[in-house]
């Protein structure tokens, strides 16, 4: 983007300033202090970025006028004028921005950002439009997006900042082992490790402690053993004396008992419980004797009863036969049941045959009684006879079937015809008609008439409307027969004007009309004629239109009349009433549609009636055929010997049941034979029973006389007699067995009595006595001795219990036999005192030993050492891990630091590389490089000797040269990124010495020559001359002391060059001499457009300066 | 002379003074196991001798350092020796430099069945069985001040049928703690060298002279993975030796290497871990296991394993699911095998990462090139032990550090966020 014109309507000291035709390269403006250079810089900033912040202080304008102005720019988007004005006069917030294109179109505010290539306010203020203040402060750059271009030292393709990585690594590394010696994980772990080592050393002393304690315990143990031995001895003696005193009295009693026992002499042996055994033997003997007596009585009673029982030998011999015959009893019962069953079956079969014959009509129910005999007399037709009836029967059945079907079809057809006829009648009745055809004709005619009536009505309405329209038109045409006033006036005017022209052309003198007199007359004639012709033609046209319209009206009237007549004719044919025609037409159409719906029904009724008549004829024919077939059937029955009245159904049933009836007849004969055989078997059995009764001598004649020969009753009588005989025999056998058993038991009892007596004798021999009395005396003595022994034993137990194994009886005996009780008690007291002393001493030693043992046990179970060593190993492992991790981090850091150094040396940002070139030129080779450390937003400068210096250490002038270099480099970088904005520099060379100012001017000129627009403001003549010497176009700013329009037009050397070649050198010098007059606006400017054209003095000065410069060079 | 078959238990390196170690963290519920494992394993040795009805027990030193265990160690050992004494099993103990007979505390009486070989000289003695002498034991305890000499052991009887037997033809067992070359051992009149001093069970020579290190009954650190125990030595009538391992470890260190590739997902990786743990549990259902994981290979999981929470999350999940069972299967760590896991194309890219990797490679290829850590150490530490501790003196350590540094730098310079 280039600035071509600046129009300051009002801004600070400037009002009405116009700077036009700014060059595309460098533009140098000279103005002394207070000339408004900085105001112009702020004006450019304000127009492009608004009246914000400090820029508000330039408003309202000092000399009045509208606050704001415009800048005309030209760039890749075309030529635009950017106007920005405040919307209030007092400078309060509020502004209006306009973007007008060269073609007059206007863009929105957002387009300004596009024009400015999206360079923001801060970047523009600190890079492109900088004053002395901005250029002295590098920090102003740091707050802008441009700073990234200075400090973004990274390796192109990586997404991760090396500095960030290094910082992260450093932080991780320092957490483990701090490079500054601060607290860190490794130090903490080492401290923990040392602490654990100290604790382990402390715990390690428990081994020595255990040794000391163990030695002490062993000594104590020896003393305790000695004391325990003494205590044991004392206690033992004390226990003996105490026991002796405790058993002193029983001991004496036992000695007395020993003396009594000795008085009985040698002990005599006597079996234990000898008396009891003797008594038991005597009692058992008596008991057995009583049983022997009872058994003797029982045997006598049994013999008597046996003798009283008698036996029938004949019956006893036939018992087996009776038993065998008894087994036939179920068969006899079954035989009798079979006879009854056969008789019932035979009777039932006879009744069934008789009933069958009666059902089939083979016999008369009045004459043929039911029963087995009658069934036999009926003559049943054979199968062959029945086969001969099959033909007539089939014919009769077919004719009968056809007759039935014909009758059924005739009934259905008649019913259908009646139904349809009734439906048709009811349908016509709904339309109040009786004949469908006539009704259809009548309804169709009405519909046609009504439709015609409807058409006529529509046509009449149409004609009436047309007539009305024509009448309106007729009236209008009649009115138009007289032309409108405007037309008449116009035509009249033309006519009069033409007449005037004619008269003027003809009558006016030639001096007035000149050569156009006749022309005017002709024109007047033509105009008058045209007006008259137009009036006539208009009137004729209106008359013709009126006539045509009237003819059409007449024609329409005749047509309406004709249509009215036709409508009346139609109305006369239609019934009266019924409402509007449309309603009537709809009703008529519905009537016609309803009648049309009955037409199919009428057709179906006709068809049904014809069908009924045909079926009636077929019924008559079938009736005749059936009568003929029945006659043949009866003839066949008579021929077969069957009743004439036998129906076809009966014959069919007879044929179907013929096999079953024959089977019934065979069954009847078979059953009758079976009955005869069973009766014969029953008689045979009765004979056998009678014979057996006779053989056994059992009378059964009375039974035979009353009930005939009932073999079952006879058999039961015979069996009862045999049963009674068996019972008597069994009783005799039982008596015999009882007697035998009693005798055996009696023998055993007698043997037991013998054994008991033998044992009593043995008892006497064992006791050494001869009689029972002597035996009992000896037993009494033994019992008395036993009591004494028992008492002694009891006392001995008491002594033993009292001693309770504390000491042997021999020791007790020594003490008791040698001393009496008082002596014993005295010795005991003495021993008790001595034992107490020993125990006390021992207890103290044991307590000490127990305490030592507890300590030893605690030390033996102490695993603190292992626990501490485990903790130590964990810490060691952590230290090992931490140091290994630190090694990895440090190795990574070391490699990355080397890379960082290489990057700082070799891969500085493009901006700084370019700035280094400018700085080299500006400082004339004293400072050759500006660079930034990786990851830091600081700059360092290398001098020609390789020293790297911080910016702060540079002189003020050098710093400004550095910062100017940076701005130029940044502007160049933005330009390469399609953000080519003009560079406005306000007195930035003021602190440069002459040499560096000259170098700076050359740098700026070359920068501009590279395609950058520069606006350089300076207040120093020598700077101005420098630029002049470099052939840069320079301008002087006009005086801003008073308000008024000021125009500065930049004249460029390229434009003046041809003139310069043509002009003689003298004239150029004259122009130079006039320069002050032109540059310095005076107060004599005209009020309206006081324009001060600032002539470019560049031409002559360039020449001079060039010569001077050349001279210097 | 008797050629009765006999059997004995060969054990060494109980190191009752050393709990399990080599881990950076011991969970509370396993602390007791870590502390008691040496005692439990040693008890298993004595239980094995009783169960196998061994004729005697040979201890190859490294048993206990009384000053480091406190009285507990000697008392506990004396108690175990007493158990053997009640079964008439003798104990023959050749002390190591850390447990010579002199360091045994006088207050703890050794039972009569225990024989400590003297220091400074070789002692020969006969082991009596029920039917006469079984074998000859020749051994010595190590003097902390002076190393033992193999020449002190009797030389082979050159020209005799059993040159390694003693003069009476008895089977000869040498007991000592230490190392020597197998040929030197073979020059002595010993048929079975019961050696101590190595924690891993090894047999440098299997016959006719057997040189055997039975190893420690309990591995102490993750590097001592696998089964540990004592050796049951059976000598038949023909003097043929058969050794068999009796596992005694109370906790077993396990190393597992899990491969990954480009297609491996985190779920698949976790499944592999769990399958391995299930297999280990099935194979060793009664032994507590301490598992160290190494993930090897390449693929997208490497970065989250190195930088993200994937490794810690996986470890926590495995510890939670398997570490509290009975017996526990505790996963100690998940580490990455740093062998060539970076894409080769990174080394040729014109990026900081590419330059970094190339620089690392240069350092790897030139082990003599110094890596200066001094700038990262504070002034007091530069001359202290820490500086020596972090200096990359060892070539293997240097290589490992550079490998990890390459991976770390590549991760940081790649700038990809690790998967959570």
What does this structure look like?
The complex is a heterodimer of chains A (1113) and B (420). Chain A is of the alpha/beta class. Chain A contains 37 helices and 15 strands. Chain A is 71% helix and 7% strand. By secondary structure, chain B is an alpha/beta fold. The model of chain B has no long low-confidence stretch (mean pLDDT 89). In chain B, strand 1, helix 1 and strand 2 form a beta-alpha-beta unit. At the A-B interface, helix 7, helix 8, helix 9, helix 29 and helix 30 of A face helix 1, helix 2, helix 8, helix 9 and helix 10 of B.
| Proportion of residues in helical segments of chain B | 25-40%
Our count of helices of chain B gives: 11
- Spatial strand arrangement across the major sheet of chain B: 4-3-2-1-11-12
Structural class per helix/strand content of chain A? Answer: alpha/beta
- Summarize the main sheet of chain B: 6 strands, mixed
Mean pLDDT of chain B: 89
Classify the beta-strand content of chain A into a percent band: 5-15%
**Any idea what the radius of gyration of chain A is?**
84 Å
Give the oligomer, counting copies of the same chain as homo and different chains as hetero.
heterodimer
User: What's the number of extended β-strand segments of chain B?
Assistant: 15
The largest sheet of chain A, given as strand count, sense and whether it forms a barrel, is: 7 strands, mixed
- The end-to-end distance of chain B, rounded to whole angstroms, is 75 Å
């Amino acid at each position: 983007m280039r600035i071509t014109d600046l129009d300051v309507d009002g801004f600070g000291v400037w009002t009405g300033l116009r700077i036009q035709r700014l060059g595309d390269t460098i533009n140098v403006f000279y103005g002394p202090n207070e000339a408004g250079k900085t105001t112009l810089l702020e004006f450019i900033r304000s127009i492009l970025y608004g009246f914000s912040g400090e820029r508000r202080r330039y408003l309202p304008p000092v000399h009045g006028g509208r606050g704001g102005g415009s800048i005309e720019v030209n760039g890749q988007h075309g030529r635009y004028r950017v106007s920005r004005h405040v919307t209030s006069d007092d400078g309060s917030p509020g502004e209006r921005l306009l973007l007008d294109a060269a073609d007059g179109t206007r863009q929105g505010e957002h387009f300004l950002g596009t024009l400015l290539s999206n360079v923001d306010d801060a970047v523009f203020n600190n890079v492109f439009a900088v004053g002395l203040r901005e250029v002295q402060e590098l920090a102003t750059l740091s707050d802008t997006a441009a700073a990234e271009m200075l400090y973004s030292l990274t390796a192109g393709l990586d997404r991760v900042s090396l500095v960030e990585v290094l910082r992260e690594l450093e932080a991780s590394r320092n957490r483990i082992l701090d490079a500054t010696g601060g607290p860190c994980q490794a130090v903490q772990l080492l401290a923990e490790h040392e602490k654990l080592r100290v604790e382990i050393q402390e715990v390690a002393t428990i081994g020595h402690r255990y040794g000391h304690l163990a030695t002490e315990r062993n000594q104590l143990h020896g003393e305790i053993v000695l004391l325990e031995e003494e205590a044991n001895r004392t206690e033992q003696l004390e226990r003996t004396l105490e026991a002796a005193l405790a058993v002193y009295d029983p001991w004496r009693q036992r000695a007395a008992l020993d003396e009594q026992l000795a008085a009985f002499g040698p002990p005599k042996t006597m079996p234990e419980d000898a008396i009891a055994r003797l008594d038991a033997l005597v009692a058992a003997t008596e008991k057995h004797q009583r049983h022997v007596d009872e058994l003797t009585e029982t045997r006598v009673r049994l013999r008597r009863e046996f003798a009283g029982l008698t036996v029938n030998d004949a019956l006893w011999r036939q018992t087996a036969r009776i038993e065998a015959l008894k087994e036939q009893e179920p068969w006899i019962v079954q035989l009798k049941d079979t006879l009854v069953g056969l008789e019932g079956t035979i009777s039932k079969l006879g009744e069934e045959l008789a009933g069958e014959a009666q059902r089939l009509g083979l016999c008369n129910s009045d004459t043929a009684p039911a029963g087995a005999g009658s069934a036999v007399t009926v003559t049943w037709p054979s199968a062959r006879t029945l086969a001969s009836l099959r033909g007539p029967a089939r014919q009769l059945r077919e004719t009968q079937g056809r007759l039935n079907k014909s009758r059924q079809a005739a009934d259905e057809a008649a019913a259908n015809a009646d139904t349809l006829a009734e439906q048709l009648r009811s349908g016509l009745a709904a339309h109040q008609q009786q004949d469908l055809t006539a009704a259809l004709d009548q309804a169709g005619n009405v519909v046609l008439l009504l439709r015609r009536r409807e058409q006529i009505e529509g046509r009449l309405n149409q004609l009436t409307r047309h007539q009305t329209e024509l009448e309106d038109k007729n009236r209008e045409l009649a009115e138009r027969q007289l032309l409108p006033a405007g037309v008449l006036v116009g035509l009249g005017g033309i006519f009069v004007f033409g007449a005037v022209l004619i008269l003027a052309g003809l009558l006016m003198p030639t001096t007035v009309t000149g050569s156009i007199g006749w022309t005017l007359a002709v024109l007047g004639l033509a105009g008058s004629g045209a007006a008259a012709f137009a009036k006539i033609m208009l009137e004729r046209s209106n008359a013709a239109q009126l006539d045509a319209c009237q003819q059409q009206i007449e024609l329409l009237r005749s047509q309406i009349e004709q249509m009215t007549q036709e409508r009346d004719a139609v109305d006369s044919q239609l019934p009266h009433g019924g409402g509007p025609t449309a309603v009537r037409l709809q009703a008529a159409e519905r009537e016609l549609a309803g009648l049309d719906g009955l037409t199919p029904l009428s057709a179906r009724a006709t068809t049904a009636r014809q069908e009924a008549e045909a079926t009636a004829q077929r019924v008559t024919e079938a009736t005749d055929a059936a009568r003929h077939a029945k006659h043949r059937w009866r003839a066949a029955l008579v021929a077969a010997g069957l009743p004439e009245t036998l129906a076809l159904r009966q014959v069919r049933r007879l044929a179907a049941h013929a096999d079953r009836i024959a089977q019934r007849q065979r069954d009847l004969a078979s059953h009758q034979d079976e009955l005869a055989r069973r009766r014969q078997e029953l008689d045979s059995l009765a004979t056998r029973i009678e014979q057996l009764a006779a053989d056994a001598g059992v009378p059964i004649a009375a039974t035979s006389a009353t009930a005939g020969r009932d073999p079952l009753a006879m058999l039961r009588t015979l069996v009862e007699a045999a049963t009674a005989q068996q019972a008597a025999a069994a009783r005799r056998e039982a008596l015999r067995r009882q007697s035998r058993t009693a005798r055996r038991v009696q023998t055993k009892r007698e043997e037991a009595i013998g054994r008991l007596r033998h044992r009593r004798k043995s008892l006497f021999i064992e006791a050494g006595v001869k009689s029972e009395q002597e035996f009992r005396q000896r037993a009494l003595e033994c019992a008395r001795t036993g009591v004494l022994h028992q008492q002694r034993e009891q006392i001995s137990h008491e002594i033993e219990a009292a001693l309770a194994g504390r000491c042997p009886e021999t020791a007790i005996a020594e003490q008791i036999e040698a001393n009496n009780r008082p002596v014993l008690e005295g010795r005991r007291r003495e021993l008790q005192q001595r034992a107490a002393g020993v125990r006390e001493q021992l207890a103290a030693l044991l307590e000490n030993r127990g305490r030592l043992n507890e300590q030893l046990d605690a030390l033996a179970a102490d695993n603190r050492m292992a626990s501490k060593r485990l903790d130590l190993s964990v810490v060691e492992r952590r230290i090992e891990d931490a140091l290994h991790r630190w090694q990895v981090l440090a190795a990574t850091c070391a490699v990355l630091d080397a890379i960082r150094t290489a990057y700082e040396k070799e891969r500085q940002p493009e901006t700084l590389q370019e700035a280094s070139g400018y700085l080299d030129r500006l400082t004339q080779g004293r400072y050759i490089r500006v660079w930034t450390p990786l990851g830091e937003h600081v700059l360092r400068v290398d001098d020609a000797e390789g020293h790297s210096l911080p910016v702060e250490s540079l002189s003020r002038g050098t710093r400004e040269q550095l910062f100017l270099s940076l701005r130029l480099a940044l502007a160049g970088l933005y330009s390469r990124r399609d953000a080519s904005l003009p560079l406005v520099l306000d007195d930035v060379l003021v602190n440069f010495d002459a040499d560096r100012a000259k170098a700076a001017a050359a740098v700026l000129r070359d920068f501009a020559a590279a395609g950058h627009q520069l606006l350089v403001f300076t207040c120093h003549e020598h700077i101005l001359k420098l630029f002049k010497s470099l052939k840069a176009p320079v301008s002087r700013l006009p005086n801003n002391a008073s308000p008024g329009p000021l125009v500065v037009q930049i004249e460029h050397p390229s434009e003046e060059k041809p003139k310069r070649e043509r002009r003689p050198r003298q004239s150029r010098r004259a122009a130079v001499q006039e320069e002050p007059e032109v540059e310095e606006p005076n107060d004599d400017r005209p009020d309206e457009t006081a324009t001060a054209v600032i002539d470019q003095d560049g031409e002559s000065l360039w020449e001079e300066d060039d010569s001077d410069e050349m001279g210097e060079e | 002379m008797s050629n009765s078959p006999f059997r004995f238990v060969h054990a060494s390196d109980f190191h009752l003074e050393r709990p399990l170690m080599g881990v950076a963290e011991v969970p509370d519920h396993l602390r007791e196991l870590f502390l008691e494992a040496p005692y439990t394993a040693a008890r298993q040795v004595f239980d094995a001798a009783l169960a196998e009805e061994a004729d005697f027990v040979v201890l190859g030193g490294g048993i206990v350092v009384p000053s480091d265990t406190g009285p507990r160690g000697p008392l506990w050992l004396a108690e175990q020796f007493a158990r053997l004494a009640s079964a008439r099993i003798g104990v023959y103990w050749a002390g190591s430099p850390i447990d010579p007979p002199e360091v045994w505390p006088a207050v703890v009486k050794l039972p009569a069945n225990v024989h400590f070989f003297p220091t400074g000289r070789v002692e020969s003695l006969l082991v009596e069985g029920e039917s006469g002498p079984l074998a000859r034991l020749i051994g010595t305890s190590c003097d902390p001040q002076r190393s033992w000499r193999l020449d002190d052991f009797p030389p082979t009887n050159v020209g005799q049928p059993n040159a390694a037997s003693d003069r009476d033809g008895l089977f000869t067992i040498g007991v000592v703690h230490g190392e020597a070359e197998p040929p030197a051992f073979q020059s002595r009149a010993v048929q079975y060298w019961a050696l101590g001093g190595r924690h891993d069970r090894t047999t440098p020579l299997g016959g006719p002279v057997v040189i055997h290190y039975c190893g420690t009954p309990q591995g102490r650190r993750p590097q001592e993975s696998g089964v540990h125990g004592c050796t049951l030595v059976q000598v038949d009538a023909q003097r043929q030796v058969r050794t068999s391992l009796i596992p005694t470890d109370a906790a077993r260190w396990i190393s597992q290497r899990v491969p990954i590739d480009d297609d491996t997902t985190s779920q698949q990786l976790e499944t592999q871990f769990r399958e391995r743990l299930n297999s280990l549990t099935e194979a060793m259902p009664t032994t507590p296991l301490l598992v160290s994981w190494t993930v090897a290979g390449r693929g997208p999981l490497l970065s989250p394993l190195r930088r993200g929470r994937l490794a810690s999350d996986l470890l926590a999940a495995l510890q939670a699911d398997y570490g509290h069972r009975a017996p526990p299967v505790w996963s100690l760590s998940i580490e990455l095998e740093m062998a060539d896991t970076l894409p080769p194309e990174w080394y040729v890219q014109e990026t900081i990462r590419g330059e970094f990797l190339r620089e690392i490679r240069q350092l790897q290829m030139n082990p003599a090139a110094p890596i200066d850590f001094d700038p990262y150490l504070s002034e007091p530490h530069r001359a202290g032990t820490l500086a020596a501790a972090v200096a990359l003196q060892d070539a293997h350590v240097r290589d490992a550090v550079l490998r990890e540094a390459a991976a770390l730098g590549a991760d940081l310079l790649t700038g990809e966020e690790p998967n959570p």
